[in-house]
């Protein structure tokens, strides 16, 4: 195993973990505080990617496009909450699943109508377009470093907000007992709206910073939503800290596993058998990890206080 390759894979895993965290942070709050199953959360990641593409075409500036995309993603999330989701809070989980699945289909088709079915791409800004020398044989793209730093910065802001502010106190209390918070005179409807809007903006931000790295296409949020649910189950529903730790674990295990599973199996079995089993095993690693965590920590690694 090359040290240079291992470092690159670790950095890629860290970057992927940061993207997962941005999506999972919003989803775990919505799920933990509101008890609402929002399958359309992954679509908001797709919306963020398409928004930054559209705004870059309109303004010619990636930085301006980022801020416009964040504002639009927040407004989009608030509108969805006001017109659709708040009418589903008291409905069964099956109704929530069916309704949000319908939104997935609608928005994926709308993306095809507006932008076409072809994959799109966005170039990173010029000041982040180069690479930096880490070792004598390793250069790493500046933009990927920037995504890692952006994810860490958002994680720090969320941690401070959830741990040390009044709104954070209400969110933590809501994750434990929304009924008690409402009984104490807190406008739980407004709290839900704030949580949902912030969650949508975080998912949109993940799509924004992923746009220069991954292809922008309809349905791009569907697969990542499944992995995001794995993250919040491993970390603990309603826990920002748990989502952060779990996202890093999943990002690193998935990235390293896909690269080294076949190589490791080839030391134990024949090359042909390893080539057949390796890719399948690599794609299963994060689910094996989730199953193991559920056996020993049914509430997740760092469950929200009051949930453990």
Q: Could you give a quick summary of the protein structure above?
A:
74% of the residues lie in helices and 3% in strands.
Please name the defining characteristics of this protein.
about 5% strand, BCAA_transport_permease, ABC_transp_permease, amino-acid transport, transmembrane, 2 strands, mainly alpha, two-stranded antiparallel ribbon, globular, about 300 residues, ABC transporter involved in vitamin B12 uptake, BtuC, 10 helices, transmembrane helix
The succession of helices and strands, N to C, reads HHHHEEHHHHHH
Portion in helices: over 70%
Strand order of the largest sheet: 1-2
Overall morphology: globular
Distance between the termini: 40 Å
Radius of gyration (Å): 20 Å
Provide the domain count: 1
Strand content: under 5%
Keywords: Amino-acid transport, Cell membrane, Membrane, Transmembrane, Transmembrane helix, Transport
Membrane topology: Multi-pass membrane protein
Protein name: High-affinity branched-chain amino acid transport system permease protein LivH
InterPro entries: ABC_transp_permease, BCAA_transport_permease
What does the model show?
Its main location: membrane. Keywords: Amino-acid transport, Cell membrane, Membrane, Transmembrane, Transmembrane helix, Transport. It is a multi-pass membrane protein. InterPro entries: ABC_transp_permease, BCAA_transport_permease. Belongs to the binding-protein-dependent transport system permease family. LivHM subfamily. By secondary structure, this protein is mainly alpha-helical. It has one domain (3-296): ABC transporter involved in vitamin B12 uptake, BtuC (Orthogonal Bundle), CATH 1.10.3470. It contains 10 helices and 2 strands, in the order ααααββαααααα. The protein has a two-stranded antiparallel sheet with strand order 1-2. β1 (131-135) and β2 (138-141) form a beta hairpin. The two termini are 40 Å apart. The relative contact order is 0.19. The model has no long low-confidence stretch (mean pLDDT 85).
């Amino acid at each position: 195993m090359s040290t240079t390759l291992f470092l690159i894979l670790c950095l890629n895993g860290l970057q992927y973990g940061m993207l997962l965290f941005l999506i999972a942070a919003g989803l775990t709050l919505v799920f933990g505080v509101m008890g609402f199953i929002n399958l359309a959360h992954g679509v908001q990641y797709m919306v963020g990617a398409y928004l930054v593409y559209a705004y870059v075409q309109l303004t010619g500036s990636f930085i301006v496009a980022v801020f416009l995309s964040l504002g639009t993603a927040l407004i989009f999330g608030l509108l969805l909450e006001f017109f659709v989701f708040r009418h589903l809070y008291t409905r069964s989980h099956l109704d929530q699943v069916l309704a949000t699945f319908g939104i997935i289909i609608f928005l994926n088709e709308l993306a095809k109508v507006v932008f076409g079915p072809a994959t799109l791409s966005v170039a990173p800004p010029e000041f982040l377009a180069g690479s930096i020398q880490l070792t004598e044989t390793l250069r790493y793209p500046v933009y990927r470093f920037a995504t890692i730093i952006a994810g860490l910065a958002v994680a720090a802001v969320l941690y401070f907000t959830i741990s040390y502010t009044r709104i954070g106190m209400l969110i933590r209390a809501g994750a434990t007992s929304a009924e008690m918070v409402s009984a104490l005179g807190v406008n739980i409807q407004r709290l839900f709206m704030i949580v949902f809007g912030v969650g949508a903006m975080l998912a949109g931000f993940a799509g924004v910073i992923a746009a220069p790295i991954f292809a922008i296409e309809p349905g791009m949020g569907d697969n990542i939503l499944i992995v995001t649910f794995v993250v919040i189950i491993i970390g603990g529903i309603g826990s920002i800290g748990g989502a952060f730790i779990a996202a890093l674990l999943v990002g690193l295990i998935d990235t390293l596993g896909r690269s080294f599973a076949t190589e490791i199996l080839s030391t134990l079995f024949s090359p042909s058998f390893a080539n057949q089993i390796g890719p399948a095993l690599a794609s299963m690693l994060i689910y094996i990890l989730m199953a193991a965590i559920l056996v020993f920590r049914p509430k997740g690694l760092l469950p929200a206080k009051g949930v453990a």
